[in-house]
Amino acid sequence: MPFQRNSLKEEDRCKLYKWPKVELHVHLEGVVRLETIVDLQREARAKGPEDFAKMMGPFSESWENMSELRSLVVIEEGDKDQSLLLFLERFKFFMGLIQGRKDAIYRVTYEFIEDLYQQRVEYAELRFCPMLLASCKLEPHFKSSGSMTPDDVIVVVKQAINDAYEDYGVKCRLILANVVGLWEYALPIIDLATRHPDIVVGIDVAGYENGHIYKTKKEKLFITAFNKAKELGIHRTAHAGEAGGPSSVKNALLYLNAERIGHGYHMIEDPVLLDYIKDKNIHVECCLTSCCKIGGFWNEKWDEHPIKKFFDSDVNCSLSTDDPTIFQNNLQMEYQKCQKRFKVSTNKLIESNLNAAKASFLPDDEKENLVKSLEKQYALISFDSF
């Protein structure tokens, strides 16, 4: 059935999620509801075998029902992927249903903000690579036959964000992600950011972490792009220290002028680097479930877990969900897991939300308003845990 907006009033907000929250690290490609994926495939199959095959693309694979989809896409509780590459393979089962489809991209974005509303999230930064969601021909990597450009993708996402804000009051902004290996798109992504300054607040580098060494001519395009972003006042974050070691974080700071670090868990292996992160008050975007399932820090190592050490040593950090499609998590679950496993106090989690708000890439006046709003609401809430 066609997707329809479903406005909710303030009194309908889910009673379980009373604490206002901020989320800085979540991927558009990884926020799709499983039910929506089923709907999108049903719609695609209705167009006929040829159109369906074209939509799914040469690197995608299909499935027959919700049970099979879940077995292919979701990392269930207690399971883990032994590498980031295995994790990235899971996206091929649904990305073809979204790429180049304005209706699908709009729906996924709108539903994401609807989910944020149910979790009492006040502000979120949603990241994605516009080139991966476009369907037009993009040299040198993509030979798609559609007409949707990266600019079109941003426009559709922006429309969904604006409509959802009108319905739910949740503010969302965009971070445009470079992807390791797609070096040639680094400067075009800066151009996209400058053309959409009202919705794009920063850039990122994601994908299979290669240590952020950037020795080759193509790899150095990322350095050029991030330097240009700094000159233009575009904020910068970088995935680093998730699959790579501490040197990955060092190089992200040195070569990319990163203001925030996505994940960063392997920093605990370098006490000098960890002290530097603390001294410079560099914000670390932590994703607990993601870290345990694909980051190399499994459930049996809770006492040694880097996120526990971040909280214990007062690193400027916050919690995010990363990819709810794959992990079937939400921000509320991340807080509860952090409290259960690490005995992190509610006050610490409140502090982490304020950290996230202060580290957000919003303009200064909007950031100040967000922080004040959170502080005012926290002062009125009197129960003990999330």
Label this structure with key terms.
single chain; 386 residues; TIM Barrel; 8-stranded parallel beta sheet; 17 helices; globular
Description:
The protein has a single domain (21-368), classed as TIM Barrel (Alpha-Beta Barrel), CATH 3.20.20. With 386 residues, it is of the alpha/beta class. Residues 8-16 have low confidence and may be disordered. It is globular. It contains 17 helices and eight strands. Helix 1 (34-46) packs across helix 2 and helix 16 (346-359) runs antiparallel to helix 17 (364-380). It has helices spanning 34-46, 49-56, 66-73, 84-89, 102-118, 130-133, 150-168, 186-195, 220-232, 246-256, 271-279, 288-294, 306-312, 324-327, 331-342, 346-359, 364-380; strands at 21-27, 121-128, 171-179, 200-206, 235-240, 260-263, 283-286, 317-319. The chain has an eight-stranded parallel sheet. Helices cover 46% and strands 12% of the residues. Helix 9 links the parallel strand 4 (200-206) and strand 5 (235-240).
Range of helix content: 40-55%
Q: What portion of residues belong to β-strands?
A: 5-15%
Terminal Cα separation, in Å?
36 Å
Oligomer: single chain
- CATH superfamily assignment? Metal-dependent hydrolases
The main pleated sheet reads as:
8 strands, parallel
Number of strands: 8
Structural class: alpha/beta
| H/E element sequence | EHHHHHEHHEHEHEHEHEHHEHHHH
Number of domains: 1
Radius of gyration: 20 Å
Low-pLDDT windows of residues: 8-16
In CATH, the topology is named TIM Barrel
CATH class: Alpha Beta
